[in-house]
Amino acid sequence: MGVIQIDSVNVLVRSQELPVFSRLGAHRRDLIPSATAQGELFEYWAHEAAHVPTADHRLWRWKMERSQHGPWQSARSLLKRRPTFVDEVLERVSRDGAITSSDLQERRGPKGSWWDWDDGKVALEHLFMCGRLTATRRARDFARVYDLPERVIPVEHLRTRTPSIVDAQRELVDKAARALGVGTVYDIADYFRLDTKDVKPRLAELVESERVVPVSVEGWRDTAYLHVDARRPRRVDARALVSMFDPVVWNRKRAERLFDFHYRIEIYTPAPKRRFGYYVLPFVLGDTLVGRVDLKADRAAGSLLVHGAFGEPGVDKAEVVAGLSAELTDMAEWLELDDVVVGRRGDLAAALRRSIGPRR
Fold first, then answer.
1. Minimal CB count within 10 Å: which of 41, 104, 208, 223?
2. Nearest CA to 61 among 136, 151, 123, 149?
């Protein structure tokens, strides 16, 4: 995959755990934090906030450098209003050790919207984007803990040769194309949120070196690119609930092109306007997306709550219910929940209740 998107919402489980569960099934819940602590993963803005292999630190230095010379608007405003403040924050971290944004206590009035960052947070995020600071996550509240890279990232990764921008982008494009298997220029650019004007020449170079092959895909308007390492199995027998931030569905247009699956995240939609629910995960069965479920982990009651279960048009509902029942049972066991409680919303709900039954 090369990247696991991070999200703080913990209605079911931290979203970054789900891609691992989707692909490997039950695994140690501390797998990602342990990999981070051991220096195998680090956090950066790759796609969105994401875990990426620390061995790939060298591939993101061009973006870190670019962020120093072209900060986003809030950082640019801060640097203009308080020219020495960012350096003062960096000096504090250097002198006193790792901090969170709340340690700076810069807020002067009532907190506004979720995105209304104070100067301290903006400074830390700017230093993070520039690679002058890195970050881990505090276990109890998932807050970013900022520190100097040399105190977090293994020295062998910091000392690796920095490739040219062209070489780094070419390698990222190669990784994205391989992860997708087949995709358009826009699909491949979206994987690591690269600019299409940078991706197009890198793809041309990969075509020339025979790393990718231009192909046409039935029903797609744009040329696609097939990676030389793309697996083409005789059949696909997948069974997985996938995070809303999983590469299978994070590119909504691609998910619709591939699977005729129209998907929108409804967390930020007012409850009366939600179509399927608050925390809705798509369900993969075989080689397609066949349904979706609105889930919540009720940890106090020890239950995995299925508020709604919906099948896609034309699916074999009995087959979907059988697969979904097994997947929900596996998920409950992985989360150490005692039972699965199915509500009444959705065309699969009644059959799913009968299929799962009481588990206590």
1. 208
2. 149
Note whether 240 and 23 are within 8 A (CB): yes
pLDDT tens per residue across span 180-195: 999 999 999 999 999 9
Closest CA to 337 of 289, 295, 290: 295
345 has which bridge partners?
Answer: 308
Q: pLDDT digits over 310-323, tens only?
A: 999 999 999 999 99
β-pair type (224-227, 182-184): antiparallel
Residue of 62, 50, 36 lying closest to 3 (CA atoms): 50
Are the beta carbons of 36 and 52 closer than 8 angstroms? Answer: no
pLDDT tens-digit readout, 3-13:
999 998 899 99
Whether 300 and 317 have beta carbons less than 8 Å apart is answered as no
Dihedral angle of Cα 79, 81, 86, 89, to the nearest 10 degrees: -170
pLDDT band at 360 (very low <50, low <70, confident <90, very high): very low
CB 210 within 8 A of CB 228: yes
**pTM (two decimals):** 0.92
Q: How far is CA 313 from CA 301, 310, 344, 346, in A?
A: 34, 9, 19, 12
- d(CA 75, CA 68) in angstroms, rounded, equals 10
E runs forming strands in the chain: 4-5, 41-46, 48-53, 134-137, 144-147, 182-184, 212-215, 224-227, 238-241, 280-286, 288-298, 303-311, 339-345
pLDDT score recorded for residue 8: 86
Alpha helix ranges (H) inside 228-338: 252-259, 317-334
Output the CA–CA distances (angstroms, integers) from residue 273 to 266, 267, 268, 270, 276, in the order listed.
Answer: 9, 11, 10, 6, 9
